[in-house]
Specification:
Elements (H helix, E strand, L loop, with lengths): L4 E8 L5 E8 L4 E6 L9 E3 L4 E7 L5 E3 L2 E5 L2 E8 L4 E7 L4 E4 L10 E5 L5 H4 L3
Antiparallel strand pairs: 1-2, 1-4, 1-5, 2-3, 5-6, 7-8, 7-11, 8-9, 9-10
């Protein structure tokens, strides 16, 4: 059975910790798997951003790829997004002056590496824009 997993971006209300709360489908219902612990230990969070789905593919290091992850491959930095017209996940290439959306065959995704996500590592995108 395909792994069905989601994550929700969370932000600490007591310190500057940004992280995720994860849920996994166990065949009958979704159960909370884990969340990013707060730096100060109080673990008080508020939810921000949309729920993001595991796309069913892992990168070249075996890391699960989620919507809004930042990946690197072939000297390109890309953001994973959901293409509603094609009903599939795709990559948005970030170049020096513009962005370009590209549909990439799933059998080639293993050459990419997850280097961050848009919530915790926005600086990875700023350096290219």
């Amino acid at each position: 059975m395909r792994e069905i997993e989601y994550r929700q971006p969370i932000l600490s209300t007591c310190c500057d910790t940004k992280g995720f709360q994860y849920w996994k489908y166990n065949g009958q219902f979704f159960c909370e798997e884990e969340f990013t612990p707060c730096k100060c230990g109080k673990n008080k969070y508020e939810i921000f951003g949309d729920i993001e789905q595991f796309i069913g593919i892992k990168d070249k290091n075996g890391v699960k790829i989620f919507k809004n992850d930042i990946v690197k491959g072939n000297n390109n930095i890309c953001v994973v997004f959901y293409n509603e017209l094609r009903a599939m996940y795709a990559l948005e290439y970030i170049t020096d002056n513009e962005t370009e959306k590209c549909l990439y065959p799933f059998d080639d995704w293993d050459m990419f590496e997850v280097i961050g996500n848009i919530h915790q590592n926005p600086e990875l995108l700023e350096s290219k824009q």
